[in-house]
Design goal:
heterodimer, A: mainly alpha, two-stranded antiparallel sheet, 16 helices, 1% strand, globular, disordered C terminus, B: 5-stranded antiparallel beta sheet, two-stranded antiparallel ribbon, 53% helix
Chain lengths: 372, 522
């Protein structure tokens, strides 16, 4: 896929700022009392987003890293002010309906977020498309929320009466009028156009989307082996990961405890020779080094697994052992000169990785490590 | 040796009480109030109570089946929610509304957050407030003996007098279960005797509220008015709320100090909502608001384990300092960016200044035209703003005249005035409206230039059906009414937005008074 269209798809669907990234919640909750308000807010944000992403991307090599956030804010605020002036001057009717939302855009975290995470690291053209994609994703999100709230709270969408008294279908004839009369029985539930309604609607839409994506995720999980990028979760932009890490760490745990039985999971691989050779390799490796954990660590890293508790604890234990070797006079809390004992200890901790006991141990060990 | 100790996590000693037993006791305690409600409000009340209980139990069963949870309708908690919800409804509420409220209480407030024990807010009150906000009109229409009547609290708020002994027995308008204080107290005594509730929360709640009311009564010049205090205590949902809903196990603090704090917050909030709020009643909002504060209250009042907090955590404050060179580069860079943006903004401002002024002028003239369709042209009239404000405040209006223009017909004769009025009496504070008045004192129409009221309630002022009530009427002073306008000078109040209505009517009256003064030649 072309990089620009990829950015559009990314912004509108994959990393939709409203429903996936949960960014810009303030305008999402505050201005979506009707579909047209949501669309207006979204489109004005899109404009600003495209312009600010473009300029920030152009200046990305000029702006010093330490003052980049204030610089971005100044640029964004300037664009917002310019747009406001222009709208007041040449589009007064649009300004009348959107004017109050325009200053809000300055503090919209989507704009700063995209500047920080994309525009300041990429070329101008993809940055513009990134801004457009994010802006349109935001617009769609706000319009959908606004439409639901307007429909439930006032019985209309974009100002057209659909439910409740005097709806559009009632003005037609025949079967449509009958349907219209039934729809006319609806009494608008005012709470949906008030602030609490925004929370209800947003919560239900997100719950629905999460359910859909969770199903999709489960489907793709069963087909392809799970893997994340080797970077840590902190730098990961895939916010839909959620259950994936969990499943993965469980698998990892199983692998740590029973490294040999964990392997036959890959039975689906059609090549029979590979099937045979793989367990052997692992077996060999573990025998050679007489440290099954090392092999597990390697295999874990190969699969791109996140660091598991066991490995972390092991490295800390190693550190402590080294520390005690270097300072023989110190009191030794745990006898860990032998690699064997170390493994047993680490494994014991791994088997209950979330228990308070192991966490406490980790913390204490961490302190010991720091002192050295 | 290993079998000597029973190894399990606490609690080790369990009470014999079960959830179902407690809930049944609550239902028994609510029965006097419910029975009185049925006697008081006849069939309507009976149908509503039945509907709420049945639909709450049904929704509990349904949602638990859908979510594949264990069915918990046997613990009676859904029935208690239904009963409480019904007792919190006006007897005039339609049945479908009761069903909608039950669905909201059980599905949204209770089950989506995890079911009994996990709900963050009292389900019955959550549903009541949901309905109250959504259908303000129907939820606040009360009847007594088949006639629409104001609740004692509403009477009290508008300065009337009430009969306290009627309120104590329950012969007043109100929600199904709140009217009879004596029935509620009988139920409360039963609960206390059965050790279902402790009196800490109700007593601190009612006590704090009473103290606040007395302070208010004295400072407002009522003096030590015991009957006023009694009326405030017996009126509305205070008793029902204090004994049955503020004491809900799930949504009240478990720490002893927390309970006291919770009760005090409830009392203060109820006082504020009742006295300074838009509506006469504030118990339900106070309780659900305090429900949300419970986690914080518990955090603040959590008892300390022995020795806890002795070991202070030291902060290692080693901040990295920037070196001089990068500071200078950063400063210069941000300076340049700011200067460039500043220049760009100044340029845009200069270019758009005139078009903006033109657009504003055009918008204003359109607004004038809207309220004075007959006029062919407008002339700005010079007047002393200060003097105008003083005159209006003398007349008792909290408005300012922003602008006055004279409306002219084709041949240039003055035919009337258009005023732009700033009012600070809106629910959100500020509103600006334009009104056209002919020389004969006929109001031509009004339109809003600025209106930031609550969407769905106060914002309804900006609809033609409301604004047209002012149009083409030769009235010196408008009044608003909730009983349906019958006279020329009466305006139908917006349901649920009395403050907005009041603000608009006052602003229009101020405009009319000012025009009168203008015609007088001052």
């Amino acid at each position: 896929m072309n990089k620009c269209t990829e950015r559009l798809y990314n912004g509108i669907v994959k990393e939709n700022p409203t429903f996936v990234q949960m960014l810009g919640m303030c305008p999402t909750l505050a201005v979506t009392s009707s579909a047209i308000n949501g669309a207006g807010m979204g489109l004005s944000t899109t404009c600003i987003l495209i312009l600010s992403n473009f300029v920030i991307s152009l200046l990305r090599k000029v702006i010093p890293d330490k003052v980049r956030i204030p610089s971005f804010i100044v640029i964004i605020a300037s664009f917002v002010t310019v747009i406001q002036f222009l709208m007041q001057a040449y589009l007064p009717s649009l300004n009348a309906s959107l004017g109050i939302y325009i200053p809000l855009i300055v503090v919209n975290c989507i704009i700063l977020g995209r500047a920080e995470s994309y525009a300041s690291k990429n070329k101008p053209l993809p940055s513009m498309f990134d801004g457009m994609g994010m802006g349109l994703g935001f617009t769609i999100g706000l319009t959908v929320i606004g439409a639901f709230r307007e429909l439930l709270g006032k019985g209309c969408v974009f100002g057209y009466q659909i439910l409740g008294d005097d709806n559009l279908l009632q003005h037609s004839s025949g079967i449509f009028k009958a349907i219209g009369d039934v729809l006319g029985l609806y009494t608008p539930v005012t709470i949906f156009v008030l602030a609490p309604g925004a929370f209800f609607v947003l919560a239900f839409i997100i719950a629905f989307i999460n359910k859909k994506t969770a199903k999709k995720q489960a489907l793709s999980d069963s087909r392809t082996p799970v893997s994340c990028k080797p970077e840590s979760c902190a730098g990961c932009t895939n916010l839909m990961c959620g259950g994936k890490i969990f499943a993965e760490s469980n698998e990892n745990k199983a692998a740590l405890q029973k490294p040999l039985k964990g392997e036959p999971k890959q039975e689906e691989v059609p090549n029979t020779s590979a099937e045979k050779s793989k367990p052997e390799e692992v077996l060999k490796a573990s025998e050679d080094e007489s440290k099954p954990e090392e092999a597990q660590k390697v295999s874990a890293e190969e699969n791109g697994f996140h660091q598991e508790n066991g490995i972390e604890i092991k490295s800390i234990m190693n550190k402590i052992a080294r520390y005690h070797e270097a300072n023989p006079g110190m009191v030794k809390p745990i006898e860990v000169p032998e690699a064997e004992a170390e493994n047993v200890k680490a494994e014991a901790d791994v088997s209950v990785p979330n228990s308070r006991n192991s966490r406490k141990k980790k913390k204490n060990n961490g302190k010991g490590g720091k002192q050295s | 040796m290993e079998n000597t100790f029973k190894i399990s996590s606490s609690p080790h000693v369990r009470d014999k009480k079960t959830t179902a037993g407690i809930m049944l006791d609550v239902i028994i305690a609510l029965l006097p109030a419910a029975v009185f409600g049925v006697i008081n409000f006849k069939t309507n009340a009976f149908i509503l109570i039945l509907t709420c209980v049945v639909s709450c139990v049904f929704f509990e069963w349904a949602i638990e089946t859908i979510l594949k949870r264990k069915t918990t309708i046997n613990d009676w908690s859904a029935a208690v929610t239904g009963l409480l919800l019904a007792l919190n409804l006006s007897p005039e509420v339609p049945v479908w509304m009761a069903i909608l409220g039950s669905a909201f209480a059980i599905i949204i407030v209770k089950q989506l957050f995890g079911g009994l024990g996990y709900n963050f807010m009292n389900p019955a009150l959550g549903a009541r407030c949901f309905l109250l906000i959504s259908f303000t009109g129907q939820m606040t229409t009360f009847t007594y003996d088949g006639v629409t009547a104001a609740t004692p609290l509403a009477v009290l708020k508008s300065g009337g007098t009430v009969n306290v002994s009627d309120m104590f027995i329950g012969n007043t308008a109100g929600t199904i279960g709140e009217t009879s204080v004596i029935c509620i107290l009988i139920g409360a005594i039963y609960l206390v005797a059965r050790k279902i509730i402790k009196l800490t929360i109700p007593l601190t709640y009612i006590g704090t509220f009473a103290v606040c009311i007395m302070i208010y009564a004295v400072s407002a010049g009522r003096g030590w008015d015991i009957s006023y205090l009694a009326a405030e205590l017996c009126g509305g949902g205070l008793m029902l709320g204090a004994f049955f809903m503020a004491t809900d196990y799930v949504t009240s603090p478990i720490t002893p100090n927390g309970k006291v704090l919770f009760g005090m917050i409830l009392g203060i909030l109820t006082f504020l909502f009742r006295i300074y709020g838009g509506s006469a009643e504030g118990v339900s909002y106070a309780i659900i608001f305090s429900n949300l504060l419970v986690p914080l209250i518990e955090r603040v009042t959590q008892p300390k384990a022995f020795g806890e907090g002795a070991e202070g955590e030291a902060n290692s404050g080693n901040k990295k300092k920037m070196d001089v060179k990068s500071i200078i580069i950063a400063t210069v860079a941000i300076l340049i960016i700011t200067v460039i943006s500043g220049v760009a903004l100044a340029y845009v401002q200069k270019v758009t200044k005139q078009p903006i002024a033109d657009a504003n002028q055009k918008a204003k003239e359109e607004a004038y035209k809207e309220v004075y369709a007959d006029a062919a042209g407008f002339d700005v009239l010079d007047f002393d703003k200060q003097q105008a404000s003083e005159y209006l405040s003398e007349q008792g209006y909290k408005c300012d005249i922003e602008e006055v223009v004279t409306a002219k017909d084709q041949s240039g004769n003055d035919i009337g005035y258009v005023l732009v009025i700033n009012s600070h009496e809106g629910y959100d504070g500020y509103m600006q409206l334009a009104m056209g008045v002919t020389k004969d004192g006929v109001t031509n129409g009004i339109s809003f230039l600025t209106l930031n009221e609550t969407a769905g309630l106060g914002m309804e002022a900006d609809t033609d059906s409301f604004k047209s009530q002012f149009a083409d009427k030769a009235v010196e002073k408008f009044e608003y009414t909730k009983q349906g306008a019958s006279k020329d000078n009466e305006i139908d109040a917006l349901s649920g937005a009395t403050i907005t209505t009041n603000g608009v009517v006052n602003a229009v009256n101020a405009g009319l008074a000012f025009v009168n003064e203008l015609k007088g030649g001052n």
